[in-house]
Amino acid sequence: MKRHLAGLLITILAYSAAAGKEPKDPWTEWFQSAADQMDLRAYGSTPFHMEVKFHAFPGIVSSKKESDQVISGDGTYEETWIAPTKWRREVTFGSYRAVEAESEAGRKMQASTDYEPSRVLMLLEALLYPVPRELYSPSLAEEHDGWKIEKGALGTQSYVKISTTFGDTKAPRAYLFLPDGELLQSIELDLVTDWTSPRIFGGRLVPQHIRVQGGTRDLLTADVTIEPAGARDGSAFELRGPAAEAGMTLRPLHKYEVRGWKVGEGFRYIVGPEGRVHATVREIADRQGALREVELIYSTNQEIAGSIISQVRGTTFRPITIDKSPCEFVLTYPF
Asked: d(Cα 203, Cα 40) in Å, to the nearest integer?
């Protein structure tokens, strides 16, 4: 029965649950525990080989131009991890293919283009960073005054919900756990991610199914399999060419890692006939600073919100950087 909880966080947000007395910042412990349970890549972890088959759904882009569409369809992700300094990741998604590997020769990357599609970054965010690091790392901690913990039950199954809202827009942020700390679902600015059917591998929880939705609309589904890495040819972790620049990577980068991203640039406000419209937009700033795959994640008025998408689509930024290297960056913001 506990697996049925994973799709119910939006409903639970509307319920009233009594919150018990908790020590100062207890949510940090929940976030840390969930991150530890799902961290396959910590020092000393069991080497593994992972395969993921995923399907990417189109986005709401308010445009018929082919270049404005969100890249969709079937894809595969494969990862072999031996140690933090010895691993290989590979993605095939339509005409896009990329391989990133690290060995004693350094980290290198080969890709069919210098742009990683939005849905690829969405998948890797769910796989690599199910709990954002800034929620539990003291050095990166954000302001936590708005978080609250609520305990409740659906039938015989208890749950713990940790939630807050984002700024003046009141966009929801919430995480749903089982009492043992297992993470079931998150809502980050109307982007809903489910992790279900976990299995134990090397003492860690590995969800076998992942689903990402915009509100209640599917954006990505993925099936995950994992097995021991076994004996691997060392050449698989060595790619030709020079070491990759810091900004050339498959993994999604975060605001505490990069320079050139300003909070104020991530917010736009529109006013419709009945006042301000709540909506959330996701877009990718590529390595040249151009916006790509701009889509509407959620809106209370799709027609009005769609009008602003066409306005911001042509916006360009000074390239965002990491270690002075231009990088891709995901922008998701409410207005």
From this structure: 9
